């Protein structure tokens, strides 16, 4: 998971945890707030009633000197006010829940009770608000509180997502630059526009590291060039000397046989050095890819070049290509070497009167070229190692497979060609190359 997604997910989860805690705390909190507001409202009405009595007298509610009472309920019985004259003074000043019978219906109220004196007479004032009405207010408050919390969560998540994207933009730039590096030589150190010291440190560390890698590759190029030159020169000298000895008429026959064997050994050593040098130069991108290559023309040239060898081994070479495919940026000679090595191995390890088929067909936005032989095949346990240049695998004739296949893989990777191999012992082997987008 991407760092930006992790930060956003963590932020969202933490907010959800906070909301769950608030949801657990909200009901009792809102219930308490509703009761406090109700009590405050009841006290305000009490003050209003007492002010009216103070200004206009108790007669507006209860006739003075009588033992009557005053009661008033609103239409839905949500609130009531009652004033009742009492014979004896009782000190009452409370707010509590109480059941009242209203028109043959029992209703629970939050009731403020207060006794007061007017002209020597004592009265009991009660102001109530129904519990059902309070509960409706509580539920409404809870509902809107939840809506508000949900809105806050969504808004903050989007804000965090945008902020994280802005905050991590320098890291995204660094990652994109690293993904574009096809080879160390193509890397160019750049500064990064950010005020975050961690990202500045990371970018500088990558620049320094890539600088060291580029120096190491440059030294490797120089070393390979010098070593190959130093090795090939004495080998060429030895070959020339042996050729001169072979033309000497006085050379004994038994020594001529040994000289021919030595000549073969030097030739094999020279081929190994040249193969390793070729692989190294390809991996160091010392070859250009500036040619348009037609796969049909390439396959036909490989066939013409190797036809004599196939005929000598009594192997039939077939070509079955659907349409043609042109590579826009490629190196013709390297691709020729890649296909030539595969076909050469297919001839070398084929059966008498066997066949090799080079087939090709478009596959969506790509083109697949396969080379199938009817040879001895490759054991399954050897397939993962056939491209390893440092692991020697013996063929049926006890000869090493050499560096031909490592060169094939190196050229394929250089051209971003997907290479797959399928083989069955005593049935044959198929090498497939997928050109273009896979």
Tags for this model:
438 residues, Beta-Lactamase, alpha+beta, Heat Shock Protein 90, five-stranded antiparallel sheet, transferase, HATPase_dom, HisK_dim/P_dom
Quaternary: single chain
| First and last CA, distance | 24 Å
Percent in strands: 15-25%
How many structural units, i.e. domains?
Answer: 3
Question: How much is the average pLDDT?
Answer: 84
The gyration radius over C-alpha positions equals: 48 Å
Short description:
By secondary structure, the chain is of the alpha+beta class.
How do the helices and strands line up, and which of them pair or pack?
Elements: H1 3-56, E1 69-73, E2 79-86, E3 93-102, E4 105-118, E5 121-130, H2 131-167, H3 169-179, H4 197-246, H5 253-283, E6 291-294, H6 295-312, E7 316-321, E8 326-330, H7 332-348, E9 355-363, E10 366-373, H8 404-414, E11 418-424, E12 428-436
Parallel strand pairs: 7-9
Antiparallel strand pairs: 1-2, 2-5, 3-4, 4-5, 6-8, 9-10, 10-12, 11-12
Helix pairs in contact: 1-2, 4-5, 5-8, 6-7, 7-8
Domain Histidine kinase: 226-438
Protein name: histidine kinase
EC number: 2.7.13.3
């Amino acid at each position: 998971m991407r760092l930006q997604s992790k930060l956003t997910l963590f932020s969202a989860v933490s907010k959800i945890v906070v909301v769950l805690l608030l949801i657990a705390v909200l009901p009792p909190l809102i219930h308490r707030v509703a009761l406090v507001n109700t009590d405050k409202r009841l006290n305000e009405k009490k003050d209003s009633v007492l002010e009216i009595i103070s200004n206009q007298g108790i007669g507006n509610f209860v006739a003075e000197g009588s033992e009557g009472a005053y009661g008033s309920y609103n239409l839905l019985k949500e609130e009531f006010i009652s004033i009742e004259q009492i014979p004896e003074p009782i000190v009452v000043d409370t707010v509590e829940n109480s059941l009242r019978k209203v028109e043959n219906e029992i209703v629970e109220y939050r009731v403020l009770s207060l006794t007061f004196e007017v002209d020597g007479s004592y009265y009991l004032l009660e102001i109530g608000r129904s519990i059902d009405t309070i509960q409706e207010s509580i539920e409404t408050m809870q509902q809107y509180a939840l809506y508000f919390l949900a809105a806050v969560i969504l808004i903050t998540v989007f804000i965090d997502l945008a902020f994280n994207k802005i905050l991590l933009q320098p890291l995204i730039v660094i990652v994109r630059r690293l993904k574009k590096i096809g080879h160390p030589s193509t890397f160019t150190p750049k500064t990064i526009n950010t005020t975050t010291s961690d990202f500045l440190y990371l970018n500088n560390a990558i620049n320094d590291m890539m600088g060291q890698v580029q120096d190491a590759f440059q030294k490797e190029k120089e070393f390979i060039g010098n070593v190959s030159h130093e090795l090939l020169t004495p080998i060429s000298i030895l070959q020339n000397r042996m050729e001169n000895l072979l033309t000497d008429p006085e050379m004994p026959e038994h020594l001529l046989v040994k000289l021919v064997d030595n000549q073969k050994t030097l030739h094999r050593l020279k081929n190994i050095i040249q193969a390793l040098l070729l692989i190294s130069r390809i991996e160091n991108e010392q070859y250009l890819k500036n040619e348009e290559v037609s796969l049909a023309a390439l396959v036909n040239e490989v066939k013409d070049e190797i036809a004599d060898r196939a005929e000598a081994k009594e192997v039939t070479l077939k070509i079955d290509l659907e349409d043609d495919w042109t590579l826009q940026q490629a190196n013709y000679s390297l691709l020729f070497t890649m296909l030539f090595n595969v076909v050469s191995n297919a001839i070398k390890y084929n059966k008498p009167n066997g066949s090799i088929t080079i087939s090709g067909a478009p596959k969506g936005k790509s083109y697949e070229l396969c080379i199938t032989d009817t040879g001895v095949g490759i054991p399954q346990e050897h397939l993962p190692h056939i491209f390893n240049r440092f692991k020697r695998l013996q063929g049926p004739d006890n000869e090493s497979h050499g560096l031909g296949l490592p060169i094939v893989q190196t050229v394929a990777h250089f051209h971003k060609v997907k290479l797959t191999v399928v083989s069955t012992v005593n049935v044959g082997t198929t090498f497939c190359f997928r050109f273009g987008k896979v």
